[in-house]
Amino acid sequence: MNPYAQRRARVLAKMREQGGGVAIIPTAPEVMRNADADYPYRHDSYFYYLTGFTEPEATLVLIAGATDQAILFCREKNEEREIWDGYRYGPAAAKEKFGFDAAYAIDTIDTELPKLMANVNALFYALGSSQKLDTQIQAWLNSVRAQARAGISSPSKAVDIRVLLNDMRLIKDEHEIAIMQRAADISSHAHARAMRTSKAGLREYHLEAELLHEFRSQGSQFPAYGSIVATGANACVLHYRAGDAELRDGDLVLIDAGCELDSYASDITRTFPVNGKFSGPQKALYELVLNAQAAAIAVTAPGKRFTDGHDAALKVLAQGMLDTGLLNKNNVGSLDDVIANGDYRQFYMHRTGHWLGMDVHDVGDYRDHVPEGEQKPWRTLMPGMVLTIEPGIYVRPAEGVPKEFWNIGIRIEDDALVTASGCDILTHKAPKTIAEIEAVMRA
Ligand SMILES: [Mn+2]
After folding, report:
1. pLDDT in tens, 108-129
2. Which domains does the chain have, with CATH numbers?
3. DSSP labels for 370-400?
4. 118 C-alpha to ligand 1 centroid (Å)
């Protein structure tokens, strides 16, 4: 069975546990950028997870009734449109190729869906996720209700299907892990390529171009998110995009970039010196962030909590802030005080990771599921979860902060797959230690 059909079978089983019903999962709309030009099309992640189908204007319907059924609504074959826009499967070929029980033209959905919703207990869909879907569902429900006097009943309950799907998507299967490993490899090579290209006088966009070249030439369809290429003081702007600032001798460059491959994201940050050689102060803070990351990686293992990594990294970073004089002991007190009072936030203001998958900030609860009313503890890590581990330090000029550290911004980010005994760093091919980075940049 193909992985998508396997996942559909699992969703259907979960729907059955809740009394059965009909699930409706549309793909994403096409979005116009300007005039006649669309944004590059990206299908909906939930839809793709259950179909592997990448055409726009499609909807998956799953029926957990007397028998299980998976039905695709998609665009009809259309010779005229295919000349302009390219191949379409059409319902017949899509049914065969993707293993659906039935497939219909998307144009017939308004007449077909009310039939499929007749005498069904529950509707499963992404409640309130899209105005269009809400409006469609209202219309379909009304046409089922219109047949009440003919003895046809309409669904009486709605369940947010994302609750089922998010839990499934949080644990990656082998098919997904293989793709994520390839995405991580491509992004790792892209970072190494940017390091090798770097030299004073180039601009941030030159390095961005190197990243894009590597992504695309290795088969990635898109960057998974807007690439950050930030040199000098720009590295202290957390969501800075690659701009046109000049790379200057003696400055660092922070690159946060990853490709999307076959619908799966990778997410890597590396920080390196423009000229290939770390200065003393840069080295001091770099080692600190690297040690913080190692502490987080060490507690990324099954049975640990999602926040254990953040707590471990934070402890190392906060101690380092005291040791380097970024924070003045006389003002802020001990390590425990710094953590309790949040003084570290002057230099470390984000969390240490997030789930990663089809979406770069992937779905999945960050809290464990517990009975209603109980305090929800942070999520317990399990094999198959993938998360980023990305501590950093950002020093904006300020009174009392040693000048040698001003405008240094460093983040080190890897993608970790939780395994049976610990974690695998999927992005291990991206040079990371000072020795590795300096060696790559010397070559
Ligand atoms: Mn990230």
Report:
1. 999 999 999 999 999 999 999 9
2. 3-169 (3.40.350.10), 171-442 (3.90.230.10)
3. --TTSPPPBPBP-TT-EEEE--EEE----TT
4. 44
